[in-house]
Amino acid sequence: MPRMHEVGIMESALDAVRREAQAQHAQRVERIVLRVGAISGVEPESLRFAFDALARDTIAAGARLDIENVPARVHCRSCAEDFVAARGFIFRCPRCGDFSGEVRAGRELELSRIEFT
Question: Which secondary structure element, helix H or strand E, spans residue 87, and what is its range?
Fold first, then answer.
């Protein structure tokens, strides 16, 4: 079951898809690609559930939803190392052990591609 947060996100995404489809005079949406960061606070499976429920009876009905997971990439100022953080919000450099809060990727939540016919 989707969380309310993901339902609102998907409503906004589908509204943007609808507007772009109208602007492009599209007949149908074939594919939607969302990029979701590992530390964005958004659950991809909840987005999929919300998409299935909300896309019915819209121009996106039957479209394929692809979700690209973006790993959290953090920069350590102490040793200038970039590293991938598995989870959480406190990141420790695996090279030098210092803590870092300089997130360079992983917070994304974006509609990155729409394919029409």
Answer: none
pLDDT tens-digit map of 31-46? 999 999 999 999 999 9
**What phi and psi, each to the nearest 5 degrees, are found at residue 38?**
-60, -30
Considering the entire predicted model, what is its pTM? 0.85
Q: How confident is the model at residue 2 (pLDDT cuts 50, 70, 90)?
A: low
| All structural domains of the chain | 4-72+105-116 (3.30.2320.50)
Distance CA 21, CA 30 (A): 11
Q: Which residue has the tokens 């530390």?
A: 39
Cα distance between residue 85 and residue 10, in whole Å:
26
Sequence-ordered alpha helix ranges (H) in the chain:
4-23, 44-54
Q: First vs last Cα of the chain: how many Å apart?
A: 31
Question: Residue 4 in contact with residue 41, Cβ under 8 Å?
Answer: no
- Parallel/antiparallel/unpaired status of strands 64-70 and 29-37: parallel
